[in-house]
Amino acid sequence: MKISIVVPTFCEESNLRAHYLACMHELEELNKRYSQYNEYEYLVIDNCSNDSTVDVALILRDSDPNIRIFVNDQNYGPIWSPFCGLLNAKGDAVLLIAADLQEPADLLIPFIHALELGYEAAIGCKKNTQENKLMWYLRGAYYWVLKKIGLVKLPMRYSGFGLYSRKLLEVFRTVHITEPSLRVLLPTCTSKIKAIPYEHQTRLHGTTSYSLYDYIREALKTIVRNSNRFPTYAGKLSLFLALFSFISVPLAIAIKILAWSSMAPGIATLIVLMLLNSSVILGFLALIMDRQNQMLSRLEPASIHVHQSMIYE
After folding, report:
1. Which of 212, 227, 242 is the last residue of a domain?
2. Any stretches that span the bilayer, and where are they (predicted)?
3. pTM here?
4. Rounded distance, CA 281 to CA 277, Å?
5. 117 and 184 belong to one structural domain
6. Which of 100, 153, 156, 163 has the smallest number of CB atoms closer than 10 Å to its CB?
7. Do 194 and 291 belong to one domain?
8. Parallel, antiparallel or unpaired: strands 2-9 and 308-312
9. Do the Cβ atoms of 32 and 69 come closer than 8 Å?
10. Residues 197 and 263 in one domain
11. pLDDT of the chain along its 313 residues, tens only?
């Protein structure tokens, strides 16, 4: 049986060699426990790096013919490039692991053990991090929101790191969506998922290519893709405000009578009108969002093709 190690890279010249050696060490340990996995490939899919990442990969390939290198002709972002790497892998089990050394390669054996037990995917979920604690808590709040409004139950603190069976990858191949985010795609394709916690390490070399804007954009996209409950919430809030505004009319009249001199003229009327106006706006907004969801559900997803400028196999 064959294991594929898919390594998405973007400007990882300082990390790639150490990452390769760590993965080779884990493959040696794996062969001692699961001798049936006697073949491997190390697949580097580079997202059009502007440093010497590809040169480092080519040097490694000179000493290891099991290394395959795909170089994208442009930067396709952090979703499509790794997904393309998964679909190009030839192994019976495929490990997706970033080259930044923040995801531990020593989870390979626990991942394989989960697949041997019948799971179709074994994924790494962060239990702690050595990086910015503020970002850690913000991500926690983000996952909590996804859990409350999501159509499917998404894995908590999961970003794609994991081992996937060949059967599951063939299912991925048949799915046609605009952005194949594994966070959303995985739970919609299978329920046989084993989550294994790990500690997210500090990046030792280089810097992340993700900016705050990229994080916010990806978070909003995931929320929109995974929920159609916003119209429901807006409709409920609109109904609540409308009822509250009608109830507040006699209350405002009573307060005005009891405190005639202390309340300025028109304040009670202004409050009631503001509540009514808000309820009407939210009601129409709920209708518009619901209609938009119906339209989007009928649209065919746009097809994006990831092209390579160079392939070394």
Report:
1. 227
2. 237-260, 266-288
3. 0.77
4. 6
5. yes
6. 153
7. no
8. unpaired
9. no
10. no
11. 999 999 999 999 999 999 999 999 999 999 999 999 999 999 999 999 999 999 999 999 999 999 999 999 998 888 889 999 999 999 999 999 999 999 999 999 999 999 999 999 999 998 887 767 777 787 778 777 777 776 667 788 888 999 999 999 999 988 877 778 888 889 889 999 999 999 888 777 766 666 666 667 777 666 666 666 666 676 677 777 777 777 777 777 777 677 666 666 666 677 777 777 777 776 777 667 666 666 665 555 555 667 777 788 7
